[in-house]
Amino acid sequence: MNTRYLVCYDIADPARWGRVYRLLRGRGEHLQYSVFVCSLSWAELQELKADLVRLISQHEDDVRLYPLPSGATLEALGGSSLTPEGVTVMIDGRVFTESRENDTT
């Protein structure tokens, strides 16, 4: 069974950033500049983490993998609605659902 992960990264070196971007582009859906959502099995998660450890600087870079709850959706405020279907964001126990009800444009 796969779990969805929100993968966010802050990479200090542009060359390393590009390598991390290319790695994640092959394994997930690009949401924003340094944010992906990846649907991974436990084995795929372990492989991704090992690949990331090889690519990043442990002292200069920061990569975070947040497991996402199933069955929830994302609320988008501003910008475009490019959130892939099935993406969920949960912050402090609150689920954000994609909605354009208050869009004034």
Quick tags:
105 residues, alpha+beta, Alpha-Beta Plaits, four-stranded antiparallel beta sheet, two-stranded antiparallel ribbon, disordered C terminus
Question: What are the SSEs and their pairings?
Answer:
Layout: E1 3-10, H1 14-25, E2 29-32, E3 35-40, H2 42-55, E4 62-67, E5 89-91, E6 94-96
Helix pairs in contact: 1-2
Short account of what is shown:
The chain is 25% helix and 29% strand. By secondary structure, it is α+β, with helices and mostly antiparallel strands.
Overview of the molecule:
This protein is an alpha+beta fold and 105 residues long. It has a single domain (3-96), classed as Alpha-Beta Plaits (2-Layer Sandwich). Helix content is 25%, strand content 29%. The protein is built from two helices and six strands, in the order βαββαβββ. The strands form two sheets. A four-stranded antiparallel sheet has the order 2-3-1-4. α1 (14-25) runs antiparallel to α2 (42-55). It is globular and about 35 Å long.
Order of helical and strand elements = EHEEHEEE
Number of strands: 6
- Give the mean pLDDT: 81
CATH topology: Alpha-Beta Plaits
Please tell me the total number of domains: 1
Low-confidence stretches: 97-105
First-to-last CA distance: 40 Å
The biggest sheet, with number of strands, parallel, antiparallel or mixed sense and barrel status, is: 4 strands, antiparallel
Alpha-beta classification: alpha+beta
Shape type: globular
Q: Percentage of helical residues? A: 10-25%
Q: From the 3D coordinates, which CATH architecture would you assign?
A: 2-Layer Sandwich
Give the DSSP E fraction (strand runs of 2 or more residues).
25-35%
State Rg. Answer: 15 Å
Number of helices: 2
Largest sheet, order of strands side by side?
A: 2-3-1-4
CATH level 1 class label: Alpha Beta
